[in-house]
User: What shape does this take?
Amino acid sequence: MIHKPQYSLVETEIREIIKQNGPISFAHFMELALYHPQCGYYINKAGFGPNGDFFTAPMTHPIFGSLIANQAMLMWLQLGKVSPINVIELGAGNGQLGIDFERHSERIDNQFCNALHYTANDLSPKPSDFLRDWIQGEISFTFENPSIIIANELLDAMPAHRVVMHNGELKEIFIGLNEAGDFQEYFLGLTTSEIKDRFDTFGIELAEGHKTEMNLGMTKWFKYIYDMIPSGYLLLIDYGYEAHEYYNEFRMQGTLRCYYAHTLNMNPYIHVGKQDISIHVDFSTLRNIAHHTGFKLVKEKSQSQFLKDLGFEQYRDSIVRDRDLSLQVKNTNLRLLDLLIDDRGMGAFKVFIFAKNAPEPSGIVAQKKDSDSPSILATTRHMP
Assistant: This one.
């Protein structure tokens, strides 16, 4: 008996598209695998949390969301305490950032909390335990009031083109099927001159055999964000490199990473629709596009320093000093907090704040010392 391979729904769809139309660009492959409207990886949210494939900062400890709320309040102060103040989270995933953000906003300032209108946006449906506004799919309208846009680890999940220097010529990587029916890479002509133009902008020349990625969707995305709000801020958090590091010869296979059951691999052609695919962000291009869109860069720091500037150490110390906590609870929370500022991991992520018709946010939100403000602790929704 011959056993036919069992493909996921989205892999079956991709294979049919290739059979009918020929090889597709890697960007198209990645878009289908992650964002197919019926069976893409991100549609079912299976990747989040301890039973998924990866953790993000909001799922690590609620103090992350608390400190983002602190930053948003400082922005709100600079915007003249406008009411309502829109906070729009793009790529909200399982909604954890919004839950922790809103919970903390109630602790820090009643006026800010009352003015706050938090909206989460994602391609997937609203989680059952998320009680605020949730927009599924692309936001098709503009906000009338000053607004704050939050995008945490969003750009790294955008579909990217892959290219290779082959026989001295820059080629684009397409995905087809070989005679055995397996996915195979083909090196074909560039789909757009924008790929070469971007390399030329930074004087990048790839070595022979060098494969790398390019996110061509950032230009449209920044324009989409800029037009969405009349004034306010864009808070971006992600991992990546400067262009000269991104395209360096010691990254001959590029920055593509796949995550399946909390295990890293470099093969996007396995577990299709069941594993995360991510591409590091080219920070040089990010700044360049944001500037030409009209945004002003007002702050850029590592995640570690960004969180510390917003009071991370004070919140951590409150757990250390809390006599009502067992040693086990303390140690668990301190371990999770340290992950947020670990310079070998999340702490090295880059934080950008861009402004549109708004000044640089400054100051610090003081932590309340009274008995009504207990230590902020991880819940069962956070990383174990």
About this structure: The longest strand covers residues 169-177. The CA atoms of residues 85 and 383 lie 30 Å apart. The mean pLDDT is 93.
